[in-house]
Amino acid sequence: MNAAQAKKIQLFDLLACLGNNPATTHSTGDVWYLSPFRNEKTSSFKINIKDNVWYDHGEGVGGNILDFVMKLKRTDFKGALKFLESTRLTTGNGSITLTSQAPSLFDRRKEMQSEILEIKPVFSFVLKNYLKHDRGLNLEVAYKYLKEIRYKVKDKEYFALGFPNRAGGWELRSSIFKGGIGEKDISIISNAQNRVHVFEGFMDFLSALTIKCNDRIGDNIILNSVALKKRAIEYIKNKNYSEIYTYFDNDPAGEKTQQEFKAEFPAGVVPCNYIYTGFNDLNDFLVKEKVPLCQTKK
């Protein structure tokens, strides 16, 4: 794939493939989203269907689809081309036609809704390799909690690792995709304990298990997004845990979430992000520090 071919891929299609749905749309051809670059409640990121360009009002930056991928994936020009080629999105001129009311955009959004085709144990070598080498996880631990999800977006089929949430939806991950299917919610793994461990994402949860090889030292809550922190707080209040251990990212969003937990539970919260000081999250620590993996019993 060359630059000219890449620029023919519709940003709308790419965002749908990445699990980002529009928040609002306008007859001008602008489509607004919650920014894919950070957590936010008010949409500040937009694309223009006609010109196939994007602009992030929160950071004051924008550009074409290659600029978007380079920023999102923190890669260079060649890396962006490689990523776009791996998505297998078509490089045609697109099929979105806007009228003054832009009805076809809403039709298109409906067409882009995902459909699960199959849920099965992790079988794909690509996904196993991603877990072991990219994420540094103990495969026996990961297989206990993950499934391989085969799904369809419009007329194309994809596959990814799936982690279930409380509402019956799935968090999806692969080396080229981060998104979800079904309703968004927190995930809860209960072991009928008086203490709870709260993780920002399921890769951090699996990283903790990879290091400790023990998931029964307490209950576990995975936010799946810091935007869902209030659901976790409500659940914790109802369960009345005596000890709350948090594993949030070492970034502004993680720090803000930590502060909210401390405000809600002044005496019960034990922040554990000191374990991975200097790293973005627990999985980043596991991979880059090459932490020795525990050995599961056969």
Descriptive terms for the model:
298 residues; alpha+beta; 15 strands
Describe this structure in words.
- The protein is an alpha+beta fold.
- The chain has 2 domains: 3-111, Alpha-Beta Complex (DNA Primase, Chain A); 114-288, Dna Topoisomerase Vi A Subunit, Chain: A, domain 2, CATH 3.40.1360.10.
- Helices cover 33% and strands 23% of the residues.
- It is built from 11 helices and 15 strands.
- The protein has helices at residues 3-6, 11-17, 65-72, 77-87, 103-111, 125-134, 139-145, 202-212, 229-239, 252-264, 282-288; strands at 24-25, 30-33, 45-48, 53-56, 61-63, 114-120, 147-153, 156-164, 170-173, 178-181, 187-189, 195-199, 219-222, 243-247, 269-271.
- The strands form 3 sheets. The protein has a 5-stranded antiparallel β-sheet with strand order 1-2-3-4-5, covered by helices on one side. Strands 6-7-8-9-10 form a 5-stranded antiparallel β-sheet. Strands 11-13-12-14-15 form a 5-stranded mixed β-sheet.
- Helix 3 (65-72) packs across helix 4.
- Residues 92-112 have low confidence and may be disordered.
What distance separates the N and C termini? 46 Å
Shape: globular
Report the oligomer: single chain
How many separate helices? 11
Q: Provide the low-confidence segments as ranges.
A: 92-112
- How confident is the prediction overall: mean pLDDT? 83
Write the layout of secondary structure elements.
Blueprint lengths: L2 H4 L4 H7 L6 E2 L4 E4 L11 E4 L4 E4 L4 E3 L1 H8 L4 H11 L15 H9 L2 E7 L4 H10 L4 H7 L1 E7 L2 E9 L5 E4 L4 E4 L5 E3 L5 E5 L2 H11 L6 E4 L6 H11 L3 E5 L4 H13 L4 E3 L10 H7 L10
Parallel strand pairs: 12-13, 12-14, 14-15
Antiparallel strand pairs: 1-2, 2-3, 3-4, 4-5, 6-7, 7-8, 8-9, 9-10, 11-13
Helix pairs in contact: 3-4
